[in-house]
Each structure stands twice: as structure tokens, then as C-alpha cells.
């Protein structure tokens, strides 16, 4: 009963926040991007701090720190770099053609499962096993093509999505929260987090990660 009351209270807070957020026409919550070392903190700007209660912010910041550490993994970094190299010769029309085919594919299609079973996908799913608060994670290369994923995404090409464009931020990178959304595959209400994946040696953006954090996972840590 106590957990249910806490979850209900959290939902009220988040829905109220979302209404304010919509009225103010602020599509995303913007964060300053910092290196992925665990001892360094992610800071938020003053405007963003007003959009969520502080206790929820603190939980989300912890989630970001954990994700940043995951994305610094050599396995994930190397997979993204290989994908960037392999996609150099692909034109946008060719990428769109792949995307259209991907959208029609079922979850058990070999191409789809290859994105879950490659080293990067295995790393994501292993992480998810020990961190169940992340119900979906996927990573793209710097062209917006999926590199690896925990489950099938609705499409393959993400660089035409506003969240991807904003997080890529013309190659500079920006960490964002987005609107609360209902995730169909997990049947849960979640907060999406978008993070640029940076090469630790050059600090250049090599890809973008999207993760979904369910409300219950946030409630459990309050």
C-alpha cells in the first residue's frame, strides 16, 4: 500500500510538471554534457531545475551517471566506431531504404536480432539485467542509424527525430530529458533520456543513446 501511494503521488507530481512544461512550451530539459568519468557530476541549468521536483531530479541524475559509465565501455565504443566507418559510403537515400525495410521487419528478423546480439547489444542487455530500471536502451552511430538495441525499435534511422537532432547538437552533444511517454512494448509510463556518446580520447560525439526510465523505477528510489 505504501509503495502504491508513493507511486500515485509521483504520478501526480509528474503529470502536474508535464502540464506546466506544456504551457511553457519547453519541449526538452537540457543538461550540460560532461565527460563520462564516474567521479564527475552532470550539472543542469537553472531553468531546467524548475521543471521537476528536486527528489526526482536526483534520481534521474543518478540514472544518467550510470548510463554514461556504460557508454564509456570499450565494447560499445568500438562497435559505434566500426559502424561509423562502415556507414561512410552510405547515402541518405540508401539509409532511408534500409529504414523502410526495418520498419516492416518483425522482432525475430535476422537483421533486427543482429543489433541485439552483436557485442554492443549483448553489453546493453547484460547491463539491463543488472539494472532493470532501464526498460529500453538503444544506441545509434553519428548518422543516426541503430548500432545496437535491447529490443526492436519502431524504426532504424533516428537522425530525422527532433530528440536525436537536439541531443547530437551539431556534433557538440547535449543530454536531454523529454516528455513523459507511454512505451507500448513494455506497457509502462516512462521518461526518455537522450545522451551523446563521446570518445573519451577526443571528446567528440560518435553516437547517441536513448534510454527509457519507467516511473516505477524512479518511485522505487525515492
How would you characterize this protein structure?
- With 222 residues, this protein is α+β, with helices and mostly antiparallel strands.
- It has a single domain (2-220), classed as PAS domain (Beta-Lactamase).
- Helices cover 46% and strands 18% of the residues.
- The protein is built from nine helices and seven strands, in the order H-E-H-H-H-H-H-H-E-E-H-E-E-E-E-H.
- It has helices spanning 2-23, 46-49, 54-71, 74-86, 92-104, 110-117, 119-130, 162-168, 215-220, and strands spanning 29-31, 136-141, 146-149, 175-177, 181-183, 188-198, 205-214.
- Strands 1, 2, 3, 4, 5, 6 and 7 form a seven-stranded antiparallel β-sheet that branches.
- Helix 4 (74-86) runs antiparallel to helix 7 and helix 6 (110-117) crosses helix 7 (119-130).
- The relative contact order is 0.17.
- Residues 1-7 and 15-48 have low confidence and may be disordered.
Task: Indicate the topology.
Layout: H1 2-23, E1 29-31, H2 46-49, H3 54-71, H4 74-86, H5 92-104, H6 110-117, H7 119-130, E2 136-141, E3 146-149, H8 162-168, E4 175-177, E5 181-183, E6 188-198, E7 205-214, H9 215-220
Antiparallel strand pairs: 1-4, 2-3, 2-7, 4-6, 5-6, 6-7
Sheet/helix structural class: alpha+beta
- The low-confidence runs, each spanning 5 or more residues with pLDDT under 50, are 1-7, 15-48
Distance between the termini: 15 Å
What does the largest sheet look like? Answer: 7 strands, antiparallel
The tally of helices reads 9
Helix-strand topology string: HEHHHHHHEEHEEEEH
Percent of residues in helices: 40-55%
CATH superfamily: PAS domain
Radius of gyration: 17 Å
Please report the total strand number as a whole number.
7
Average pLDDT rating: 80
The geometry reads as: globular
How many domain modules? Answer: 1
CATH fold-level topology: Beta-Lactamase
Classified by CATH, the class is Alpha Beta
